[in-house]
Write a structure and sequence with these properties.
This protein is an alpha/beta fold. It has two domains: about 160 residues, Rossmann fold; about 50 residues, no CATH class. The chain is built from ten helices and seven strands. A seven-stranded parallel β-sheet has the order 4-3-2-1-5-6-7, sandwiched between helices. Helix 5 links the parallel strand 5 and strand 6. Helix 5 runs parallel beside helix 6. The chain is globular. The mean pLDDT is about 90.
Length: about 220
């Protein structure tokens, strides 16, 4: 049985991870969950998985969770200690795998904390590597942590490179699967509303704009 912490459990990656855990309940166990604002969905997840530790990144959510789970075994973490709640959750001694699906550079501290604790980090937060890749790799080496890419192209490339020697690879190509302007020739009069209307995914405004402008490919690279 492997103990799992999911950071960003109410987002698309977090929800998909929980679906996988549901189908492997004999091998994987949730011991910690973190969310940004969606305390209603997080409440449902707590009731279903009964994690030992939970945190959420807003006061309204914290107050609601404290009242709702006052008599339960789940501990609601906050930022009152010397470490942030997300860093505490990332470095629990009993954790085997930390899935970091936090959006943006806010996920960097969690990645660093998990690696310092020698954890296997399933990393969907590519901004961590963009901001501090060499530092995180050094932490992984120093503390016997591990970084496993789980986000789209990163994971695909990682899996492909497991099948042979790296000296067999001369180039890697990242393709675009098609955003809101896939079949549009002229982009002179694009509106923000159009850029925010992705045809396939609901990713939040930041990532959606990154996708529409192809900035997301630069971050992945």
């Amino acid at each position: 049985m492997r103990n799992i912490v999911i950071l960003g459990s109410t987002g698309s990656i977090g929800k998909n991870a929980l679906d996988i855990i549901d189908r492997n309940a004999d091998k994987l166990k949730i011991i910690g969950l973190a969310a940004n604002r969606n305390y209603k969905l997080l409440t449902e997840q707590i009731k279903k998985y009964n994690p030992s530790f939970v945190t959420i990144n807003n006061k309204v959510g914290l107050d609601f969770l404290r009242k709702t789970f006052a008599d339960s075994s789940t501990e609601i973490l906050d930022d009152s200690g010397h470490k942030s709640a997300i860093e505490v959750l990332s470095s629990l001694p009993e954790t085997d795998i930390v899935l970091n699906a936090i959006v943006g550079s806010a996920g960097l501290k969690a990645t660093a904390a998990a690696l310092r604790a020698g954890k296997r980090v399933a990393l969907a937060n590519k901004e961590s590597m963009v901001a501090a890749g060499p530092i995180l790799r050094n932490l992984a080496n120093e503390y016997n942590g591990e970084i496993i890419p789980v986000d789209s192209e990163h994971s695909a490339i990682f899996q492909c490179l497991q099948t042979g020697g790296k000296d067999e690879v001369t180039s890697l190509i990242l393709t675009g699967s098609g955003g809101p302007f896939l079949n549009r020739a002229n982009l002179d009069d694009v509106t923000i509303e159009e850029a925010l209307h992705h045809p396939n995914w609901q990713m939040g405004p930041k990532i959606t704009i990154d996708s529409a402008t192809m900035m997301n490919k630069a971050l992945k690279l």
